[in-house]
């Protein structure tokens, strides 16, 4: 068997340019096909044993099997064929360049995929942690290019010095842009605001966070309008996050009944209606027990709050709407009066002294 292999190797080596090219192409094709098949099976195994989606893995490793196949083909061809020194040097540099390119792409995509898996909560056109992904991609690709230049014999020390001086000038010229960039990174790293959270700002803008890029944060309002806020202002304002630490939230609905009402009956009827609403409405928190709390004697009514709980803050409008309709009908049926504001004015006429003029 070794003698046969040696004979075939000698034939290939002495076969001329056409044979060499054919062997080179066969090595490339075999390397690409084998690696792609093995990679696809490996990704399916990883997706089956972890909570990482197969589509995300396939997107992350897109093109990597082809590059690895080309690398294996190049390595096999250089080992089998007797290549002259100059073409061999070119192929070796090409091999090193493809190795650097493969690792650069792999590291950048792994970082981006990890960020999407870690921070991303919702799907959609804007649901991506683009700010961190862009920053890390830029850093990884810059390092990869520097290694690539060094592999071709380019001195990178002067280049690094020039980049340092140029970076300082750019930083001074782009202070606001860099402030927005690092503010956005701080927001994401702190994990207090995530993509998909419903937030309300101290300036009264509210809605779902749909994107954070290198310059601004985008909020989709309940009326489906987009509010674009610079990251520096977003990080410095007071924010109420209705999705943290829990998505469920309580709502208080104020009601007033007349002074002639039986307060025990009012409480019982109100709780019954509140239970019906949160049990039947899709946005109601089914396991919550509604509460009635009297709080004041007003001019024409005894006031109280009805406390209900909804699954998300966006459900409160519909639940409140349905509760008010049902409680109005039930109060009319039970004879419970919701009074109009009235004021009783007492006036006693005073005798008027009449002075006679003679």
UniProtKB/TrEMBL annotation:
User: Where is the Mechanosensitive ion channel MscS domain positioned along the sequence?
Assistant: 176-243
Any transmembrane segments, and where?
A: 20-39, 60-82, 94-112, 124-149, 155-174
Among InterPro entries, the record links this protein to: LSM_dom_sf, MS_channel_1st, MS_channel_C, MscS_beta-dom_sf, MscS_channel_2nd, MscS_channel_C_sf, MscS_channel_TM-2
Entry membrane topology: Multi-pass membrane protein
Gene Ontology BP term (one): transmembrane transport
The alphabetical list of record keywords is: Cell membrane, Membrane, Transmembrane, Transmembrane helix
Ranges for domain Mechanosensitive ion channel MscS C-terminal: 252-338
Where found? Cell membrane
Q: Which GO terms describe its cellular component?
A: plasma membrane
Q: Where is the Mechanosensitive ion channel transmembrane helices 2/3 domain?
A: 139-175
One Pfam family recorded for the sequence:
MS_channel_3rd
Organism domain of life: Bacteria
Similarity-based family: Belongs to the MscS (TC 1.A.23) family.
The protein here is known as: Mechanosensitive ion channel
- Recorded source organism is Propionispora vibrioides
């Amino acid at each position: 068997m070794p003698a046969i292999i040696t004979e075939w190797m000698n034939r290939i080596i002495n076969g001329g340019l056409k044979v060499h090219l054919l062997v080179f192409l066969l090595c490339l094709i075999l390397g690409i096909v084998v690696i792609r098949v093995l990679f696809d099976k490996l990704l399916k195994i990883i997706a089956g044993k972890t909570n990482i989606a197969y589509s995300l893995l396939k997107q992350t490793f897109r093109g990597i099997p082809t590059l690895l196949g080309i690398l294996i083909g190049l390595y096999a061809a250089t080992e089998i064929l007797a290549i002259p020194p100059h073409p061999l040097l070119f192929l070796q540099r090409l091999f090193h360049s493809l190795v650097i390119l493969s690792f650069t792409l792999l590291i950048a995509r792994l970082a981006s995929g990890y960020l999407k898996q870690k921070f991303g909560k919702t799907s959609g056109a804007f649901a991506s942690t683009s700010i961190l992904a862009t920053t890390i991609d830029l850093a990884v690709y810059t390092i990869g290019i520097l290694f690539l230049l060094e592999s071709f014999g380019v001195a990178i020390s002067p280049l690094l010095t020039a980049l340092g001086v140029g970076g300082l000038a750019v930083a001074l010229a782009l202070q606001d842009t860099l402030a927005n960039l690092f503010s956005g990174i701080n927001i994401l790293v702190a994990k207090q605001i995530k993509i998909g959270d419903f937030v309300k700002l101290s300036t009264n803008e509210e809605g779902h966070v749909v994107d954070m890029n290198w310059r601004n944060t985008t909020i989709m309002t309940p009326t489906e309008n987009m509010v674009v806020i610079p990251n520096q202002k977003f990080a410095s304002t007071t924010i109420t996050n209705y999705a943290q630490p829990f998505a469920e939230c309580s709502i208080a609905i104020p009601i007033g009944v007349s002074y002639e009402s039986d307060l025990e009956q009012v409480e019982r009827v109100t709780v019954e209606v509140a239970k019906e609403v949160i049990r039947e409405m899709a946005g109601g928190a089914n396991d919550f027990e509604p509460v009635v709390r009297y709080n004041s004697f007003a001019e024409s009514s005894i006031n109280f709050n009805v406390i209900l709980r909804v699954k998300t803050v966006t459900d409160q409008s519909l639940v409140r709407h349905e509760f008010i309709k049902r409680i109005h009908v039930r109060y009319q049926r039970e004879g419970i009066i919701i009074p109009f504001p009235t004021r009783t004015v007492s006036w006693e006429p005073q005798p008027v002294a009449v002075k006679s003029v003679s």
